[in-house]
Every structure is written in structure tokens, then in C-alpha cells.
Design a protein that fits this description.
This is Homoserine O-acetyltransferase. This protein is of the alpha/beta class. The protein folds into two domains: about 5-155 and about 240-330, Alpha/Beta hydrolase fold, catalytic domain (Rossmann fold), CATH 3.40.50; about 160-235, Rna Polymerase Sigma Factor, Chain: A. It is about 40% helix and about 20% strand. The protein has ten helices and ten strands. The protein has helices at about 100-115, 130-140, 160-175, 180-190, 195-200, 210-225, 230-240, 250-255, 275-285, 310-330, and strands spanning about 5-15, 20-30, 40-45, 65, 70, 75-80, 120-125, 145-150, 260-270, 295-300. The strands form two sheets. Strands 1-2-6-3-7-8-9-10 form an eight-stranded mixed sheet, sandwiched between helices.
Length: about 325
């Protein structure tokens, strides 16, 4: 947790009408110092955190020196969703998780940016839940983002997403080993049958008939349990259900049309959580109203988690977006 910083937020009004007297917002800054370079905000996913690059960075293949999001050129800010437990003592947890929404998190992130005197950002990028929060950030401040880049994500929770959130919530609240058991189910959502079948081929781990697939799934469950808190899992899972930039607003096209950012929709062809067909529908709708909308697709056997695996493909998509600012700077110089 090197260079982990904190902003104290007071009297924050939640979307449901309740007020939080105090919210600690933890964050990390990478690359160029604040105020000296264009800002990129990276939003983490369900089990992620602000440690996006470096030795233990979960997205070091994308963010870092000479990477697609080049920390030799950009200032990268990554906030922790309050309640994810990634803080000084691991106690930044939230019990009343159903009080919160992705819109609340987006508003909290803007509060953090304004506190840091950041009024405009070159890009807001995030995968899965992080991409949904990026959508909300753009809807809240439609003129303050140059590039909106949601990856393996959506502006809404489909019935399919909501159904899986319910299953996860039931497991998390009723299982004897909730984190492990919920992770077993979630891991299969994040991958594909083709990947699982191709990798394990019904093979056994040992003569005791322990199957490789069972061992792999349980290993994912126990690893998450060793580093993640139950309250954090409940909150993050719940936030997926609340994704909807049209809630208490006009229709999608009206909301999206107000967003001035270039919108880069990046999907995974085999995503079983935020399915690619929904993103293609969004793209078709948006192109009827806006010119600065772009569709990109990662092809992968890995499914939803491909944005954490297919770094070469994702880098090829992202580099032109981020290199554009460098090229414009050199031209103007």
C-alpha cells in the first residue's frame, strides 16, 4: 500500500436520501505529479483496489512506464471504492451495503477529484464494475471527461446481471463459507466453458480422484478469502445491481448525448457477465446520435476476465487513444 493517501469526506448525501457523517476516501497517484500532466482516472473492479501498477499492481500490463496508459506522461489516479477494505488497517468496511449505489461511488470519486483540484480528466477508464462507475462519472459531469472508456461493462445492469447478483447475495448471506462459495460461482461467470474444458480436460490432480477443475476453483475461493473481507464482497456485489445511468433521469440516449467525451466501448466477445451483444446494441443506438463513439472488441477464450489477461489486444486498442494526446502536444509545440 505504498503512497496510499486519504481524503476525508463529511456529510455525504447518499442517493437513497440517507446522509453519511463521515466517509474516508483512499487513493493512490502514479506517474507524473498532480498538476503537471493530463489526468487519467482508473476505476477498479469488484475485487480490485487502487494499486493499479508497480510490482503488485493488478493492471501493470496496461498502466506503467511505456505502457498503453503511460505513467511517464500521464498522472494516474485510482480511488478505492469506500468499503473495499484497502486502507491503512483494512477496517474501512460498510455494513449497510444496500444503502449504496454506483452513482454514489461516482459522486464520491468526483468529490475526491475536486478536492485534489482536478477539474477535467483526459480519460476515465475501468473494467467491469469500474467501467460502470466510469459511465456514471460521465453522466454526472458530462463536460469534464475527454475520453470515457468502459471495458467489459455496461451503463445498466441487465436482468442477467441482476439475477447473478441475487445468487451471489444469497450465498454471501447464507453460506457457511461465504467468500469461498460465492467465488466458486463468480469465477465460472468470469470465464467460459470453452476455456475450462480446454484447460482441464477432465484431468485429475492425484490418485484420490481430486479433479483439476475442482482444485482450481477452490484455490480461487481460498485465495480471495485470504485477502478479502465479507463486508467488502457484499457491497461490491450489490453495486453491480445498481448500475443504471438512467435511474431518475431521462432515457439513455438523452443522458448519453449530453456526454461530451469520446466514448470508447470495449467488449469481450465471450463475456458471459456483460455480454458483447448488449454493448453492440449500445453502440448502434449511440451512433445514431453521436459521431465520437467507437466500438472495440477483444477476442478471447477467457471470457469476462480477458481484460485482465489479453494485455496485448487491450494495449493495441488503448494506445491510439492515449497516444493522441502526446501527438497533439508535439504538434502544438
Amino acid at each position: 500500500m505504498e503512497n496510499l493517501e486519504k481524503i476525508d469526506l463529511f456529510n455525504f448525501d447518499l442517493e437513497i436520501g440517507k446522509q453519511k457523517a463521515y466517509l474516508p476516501l483512499f487513493y493512490q497517484v502514479f506517474g507524473k505529479p498532480l498538476g503537471s500532466a493530463p489526468v487519467v482516472v482508473v476505476n477498479h473492479s469488484l475485487t480490485g483496489n487502487s494499486n493499479v501498477t508497480g510490482e503488485k499492481g493488478w493492471w501493470s500490463g496496461i498502466v506503467g512506464p511505456n505502457r498503453a496508459v503511460d505513467t511517464d506522461y500521464f498522472t494516474v489516479i485510482a480511488f478505492n471504492i469506500p468499503g473495499n477494505g484497502f486502507d491503512d488497517n483494512g477496517e474501512n468496511l460498510i455494513d449497510n451495503y444496500r444503502d449504496y449505489s454506483t452513482r454514489d461511488i461516482a459522486r464520491i470519486f468526483w468529490e475526491g477529484l475536486f478536492f485534489l483540484k482536478v477539474q477535467n480528466v483526459y480519460a476515465v477508464i475501468g473494467g467491469s464494475l469500474g467501467g460502470a462507475i466510469a459511465w456514471e462519472m460521465a453522466a454526472l459531469q458530462p463536460d469534464k471527461i475527454d475520453n470515457l472508456i468502459p471495458i467489459a461493462s455496461d451503463w445498466k445492469a441487465t436482468d442477467w446481471v441482476i439475477a447473478n447478483v441475487l445468487i451471489q447475495d444469497q450465498i454471501l448471506n447464507h453460506s457457511d463459507d461465504p467468500i469461498v462459495d460465492a467465488r466458486l460461482h463468480a469465477t465460472l461467470l468470469y470465464r467460459t466453458p470453452e476455456y475450462v474444458n480446454q484447460r482441464f480436460k477432465r484431468s485429475k490432480l492425484d490418485e484420490l480422484s481430486v479433479l483439476q477443475i475442482e482444485n482450481w476453483l477452490l484455490d480461487h475461493g481460498f485465495k480471495l478469502k485470504s485477502r478479502y473481507r465479507l463486508a467488502a464482497y457484499k457491497l461490491m456485489n450489490h453495486l453491480l445491481k445498481t448500475i443504471d445511468i438512467t435511474r431518475n433521469r431521462p432515457d439513455f440516449l438523452t443522458v448519453a448525448n449530453a456526454i461530451e467525451a469520446n466514448i470508447h466501448l470495449i467488449t469481450v466477445d465471450t463475456d458471459y457477465l456483460f455480454i458483447a451483444d448488449e454493448t453492440r446494441k449500445t453502440y448502434r443506438e449511440l451512433t445514431n446520435k453521436k459521431q465520437n463513439v467507437f466500438y472495440h472488441q477483444i477476442q478471447s477464450i477467457h471470457g469476462h476476465d480477458a481484460y485482465l489477461i489479453e494485455f496485448n489486444q487491450l494495449s493495441d486498442i488503448l494506445k491510439p487513444i492515449f497516444n493522441l494526446h502526446k501527438e497533439q502536444r508535439y504538434v502544438s509545440a
